[in-house]
Amino acid sequence: MTRAQAATPQERPGKPGIVESSALLGEQGQLIIEHRGKRYQLRETRNGKLILTS
Q1: Closest Cα partner for 4 from 33, 19, 48?
Q2: What is the CATH number of the domain that holds 41?
Q3: Torsion on CA atoms 10, 27, 29, 15, rounded to nearest 10
Q4: pTM, whole model, 2 decimals?
Q5: Within the chain, what is the greatest distance between any pair of CA atoms?
Q6: Are 28 and 36 in contact (CB under 8 A)?
Q7: What domain count does the chain have?
């Protein structure tokens, strides 16, 4: 399975999709998200929590 396939939300009629964080964050534990022309960093903390910063 490719990373793009792994990050595809599971189909759940009437409910938000679910994507495993590991599929998004990969081995580096971080992801850059571009939203409306601005970049955000999603990363996992040492305590296993997620933090989103701009």
Answers
A1: 19
A2: 2.10.70.10
A3: 0
A4: 0.68
A5: 34
A6: no
A7: 1
Which residue is it, tokens 């599971």? 10
Q: Is the pLDDT of residue 1 over 50?
A: no
Percent residues over pLDDT 70 in the chain: 78
pLDDT tens-digit profile of 24-46?
999 999 999 999 999 999 999 99
In order, the DSSP letters of 1-54 are --HHHHTSPPP-TTS-----HHHHHTTTTEEEEEETTEEEEEEE-TTS-EEEE-
Q: Which pair of tokens denotes residue 39?
A: 């970049």
